[in-house]
Design goal:
alpha+beta, 41% strand, 4-stranded antiparallel beta sheet
């Protein structure tokens, strides 16, 4: 699962300019459905990850399986024949892996399906 997080962090480093968190469906090491929620970038924070997790799982709630975050810098260099400028910005890579909780009815359906 750490390989997935590293790949997602690399992708997050390149993007991350908007304010809404993004998500991707993944499978946990136990083979269950989960989601990698990305709230990386200077315009986002952990609150955006939690908000997106709430939207994904709605009233079922969710369990946070893993949280990965690191700070870094991005340098934008622009040059012309006469002038060169460099702007350095601090950015943050934030990935939260979640799994939606199941309500009792879904659990019963799942157990019934296993029995067939």
């Amino acid at each position: 699962m750490n390989k997935i997080i590293i790949i997602l962090l690399a992708a997050a480093f390149v993007s991350g300019c908007g304010t809404e968190a993004s998500s991707s469906r993944i499978y946990t090491s136990e083979g269950k459905r989960g989601y990698a929620v990305n709230c990386s970038g200077v315009n986002r924070n952990w609150g955006h990850c939690y908000q997106k997790a709430g939207i994904i799982c709605e009233d079922l709630g969710y369990e946070v399986l893993e949280v990965t975050g690191e700070a870094g810098t991005v340098t934008d260099v622009k040059s012309s024949s006469a002038v060169s400028t460099a702007t350095t910005t601090t950015t943050h890579n934030r990935i939260m892996v979640i799994q939606c909780k199941h309500n009792e009815e879904q659990k019963a359906d799942s157990q019934a399906m296993k029995g067939k």
